[in-house]
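Annex B. Sample input.
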Amino acid sequence: MNMQKSKKEKLPVFYLEHMHFPTENRQYIIVCLLIFMDFLGILPLLSDPFHKGFFWAGAIPVIAMNIWGLLYIFAPYKFERSYYLYMGVFGLITAYLYFIVAQKFMYVHVGVEGPLFGVIGLVLFVAVIVFFQIFNHRMLYSGKYDKLDEDSSGFNLSPILAASSMGYIVAQFLMSLAVTDSFMIMVMVASYSVLILIMAYFATYLHRYIYILKHPEQLKSMYSGFGLPKKERKY
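Annex B, continued. Sample output.
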């Protein structure tokens, strides 16, 4: 019991040692919104042939995330705490956006009919999101993130992660191969599958936000000005 408690007490240090500075938060938000969400997400939904259903399915959450993101662009110090919540939600929404883009490629560009392809893709998508959340939780509470942080050359991330990621990409590629002979479409679907994996990792920022809420004392001990406006911080 005590050993388990001591192990859990050590884990938050990993998060504390990898906090971002508010000005970095602003830069990350701008890059993430412009490149990952607006450019890579919305532009393909606007491309010909245009489909109103797919466009609005992706555009509505994107508009909401862009508006929300303004908080961290104009007041990154004041909203430093909720930045980690935002990045977790950003990962989920952007992964969903890329899923919509991949579905558009298949249903609109290729002309796939019937719900089977979409249902299988949705099941795989949800499985990837859940897998990353569980994997991140186990890595934290096993102390493996600490080992990786201490000696990045002598510790490798679990091969299960690599195998699962490759399995998802291959599954998406084979699904596209089964319904089209267009090499470009298959490459695009596989590319967006990789992006979904990246965004699934971003979604684990939700764990960081939960930690911040649960350990305010430890957070304040290392960052006394955390969450305060810039003019109220002591340097």
